[in-house]
Every structure is written in C-alpha cells, then in structure tokens.
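Before the break, one more example. Copy the sequence into your notebook; we will annotate it together after we see the structure.
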Amino acid sequence: MIGCGSYANNAKRAASCTGNGELIRHAVAHDLHSLVAYRHLSLNEARHTILDDRFSNNPGTGGWIAIDREGNVDRVFNTAGMYRDWIRVADSVPHVAIYAGE
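Here is what the structure looks like once it is written out:
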C-alpha cells in the first residue's frame, strides 16, 4: 500500500501520513488538501476538523506532516514518537525531531 497515506498538489500543499491504518481508511492526506482548498481552512484548522470529526471515536495511532505552498508546516501524532523532518523556505534551516515537544 505504498503511497496510500500521501497526497501532493504542487500548486497547493502536500501531506504524508503514517499509522496503523486509520489514516489510510479515512484518506486523511487528501482530506487535509480538500479542507484547505474547498473550505479555505488553514492546515491547523483542517487538522482539528479531521481529529475532532473522524478520530474522536476511532482509536488509532499515527500522525502526519503537511506543508502548504507558503511553507507552513503542520505536524501531529499521537504515538510515543514520530520521525519527522522539514525545512522552512523562510530560514532554510533543517529541523529533525522524534518525540513530542521537539
């Protein structure tokens, strides 16, 4: 199922999700894109909509990293750790993190 947890639109945003399957079943990567594109939500607002609407009663573990065309990065996960890295266009500084709060 390679690629099932990813979605990218070069003109708008990209997201990569991983977890125990709930993120794929709910098409979270594409939903992030759709909520921003069609409801004009920020990545952060889209995240809360997805978490509140789809995962409040669905126990699952995983997370995602998403970036929009302005270079805004959104990262969320509900596991002990999640490997992630990103570079913001504004400062070109690489960021690498594993645990919450990093």
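The CA atoms of residues 7 and 30 lie 6 Å apart. The chain is about 25% helix and 35% strand. Try to locate both features in your own notes.
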